[in-house]
Known about the structure:
Helices cover 29% and strands 24% of the residues. It has 576 residues and is α/β, with parallel strands linked by helices. It folds into 4 domains: 4-44 and 52-122 and 257-326, FAD/NAD(P)-binding domain (3-Layer(bba) Sandwich); 137-254, FAD/NAD(P)-binding domain; 340-461, 3-Layer(bba) Sandwich (FAD/NAD(P)-binding domain); 467-568, Rhodanese-like domain (Oxidized Rhodanese, domain 1), CATH 3.40.250. InterPro entries: FAD-bd_OxRdtase (IPR050260), FAD/NAD-bd_sf (IPR036188), FAD/NAD-binding_dom (IPR023753), FAD/NAD-linked_Rdtase_dimer_sf (IPR016156), Pyr_nucl-diS_OxRdtase_dimer (IPR004099), Rhodanese-like_dom (IPR001763), Rhodanese-like_dom_sf (IPR036873).
Amino acid sequence: MSKKVVIVGGVAAGPKAACHLKRLQPGWDITVVDQDSMISYGGCGIPYYVGGDVSDEAELRSTSFHMVRDVPFFADAKGVEVLTRTRALAIDRQNKKLRVKNLDSGEEQELAYDKLMLSTGAAPFVLPIPGADLDGVFTISDLHKAIEIKKRISGGKIGRVVVIGGGAIGIEMAESFADLWGLETTLVEFMPQLLPKLVDADFATMLQRHLEEMNVAVYTGEGATEIVGDSEGRVVAVKTPQRTLEADMVIMAAGVRPRSELAKEAGLAVEPWGGITVNSRLQTSDPDIYAAGDCIAVKHLVTGKQTYAPMGSLANREGRVAADNMAGIASSFNGAVGSFIMKAFDRCIASTGITYEAAVAEGFDADYSLTAPDDRAHFFPNSASLALQLVFDKRTRQVLGLQGFGMMNDSISARIDTAAVMISKGATIEDFMMAEMAYAPPFSAAIDSLNAAAFVADNICAGRMRSVSMQRFYAWMEDFSSEPDWVVLDVRHPKEAGPFVEKFGADKWIAIRYDKVRKQHKELPTDKTLIIFCGSGNRAYEIQVFLDHLGQHNSLVLGGGMKVIRWIGAAWLPQL
């Protein structure tokens, strides 16, 4: 028996559900409604279109076999009717009808449905500040605005850009402006760090330093209070409490909010923060209405709480699950762990699960291992270091999250993707220690960096390794009086350690090479706390074990070592 299915929203989840459902039920009547004229495009690719990695906007709307996904494509190739420039106005749940309006003609009509799906997406958050409506202020909300942004820049009209918002989209846009176009680019973030809630402070600082090295000015802990215009209504500057930043263009990338007004007005259950409430089959509180994509709330598989995860990758999977269930095939979307990855010039940063800060806030008995291994066999050409932070619960040994920072290659994504699958299944430190990773020198070390991060976590849980955080170490380096009994034991090569001894003095920076400590350990003070320091933390841990064996338990290891410090940067570093 044929059924009518109406889908509201034609960007990611909607088209995926429509096409999959048509394959499952070829005789069903499926209609997609979208208020835009452009549909089914890769919104996450907009920064790369602006930045030139994607040369033509049509590529964002094309299939892998180079057919543009427009209305004729869906009708002819997929058998799906698409009504563009058509806004959904209201849902009549009792009579199962959707009232819509054609935005060009103004005509309204009612579409009957057996099953309705909402994939209304998300709307950019527009800061409630003066000047937000000036000419030259853009949100990254659709392809039309991206085309206009690129048109203005390529026309030579823009020299200075201010990006408001230090999330992923804001950073990607800043890179696009500074890298391809060579524009004077400034990034302003209200929170104390970039990528708030996605990574911990050390990783955000590594990213910020790299952006600054690539000529992007970054100001964190500053909120935009006003966008200033000229007499003709064009943007000329952005004000914060600390400064005024001149600008020919402003990108407002202050996050997005779920578009759930249609659901709320229809009486469907909606979370207090706006996400449409769905079950694992992606049914709303009305069993004949489904929802998927950036408009819904999803269960976080670590915390068990409802959260917001506006990602194109999730939207596509959700669209498939919703289509399965509408077709009568039992299928579940159980939730997400919040996996994230992004490129920033020559670097890559990523995370999955929850941060250490979030884990503490959620009540876990949380700790983390910070490591800086090589991304492939150390002897292989072009091997480079990466930073990994494995967050775990000390009581249950459950792994809660992983963060990575390193070169722009495959090394971070391989570990984050592996961790995402394992964390979603409740994996423990033991599972990560024994995870089988494909090995060849061009791809990894014989002891994979993911295994190594878990080995360190195991040592911490077992009490074999005592560590000090980077933040606490940095605070001491800024003020030695904060921990008057601390002294660094630097076990690196004398050529590496020498400049530090020269700058800080032998009373604060003791240099004994790693392979000499066993013979010279009696030279070490027993009335001081030794901060054992090396390139990444591995040699430091070995020395701590040796000193513990001698009964000298007055030491802490600086995990990540000099590698992480160089990525973070510091004014106190000697000029080498």
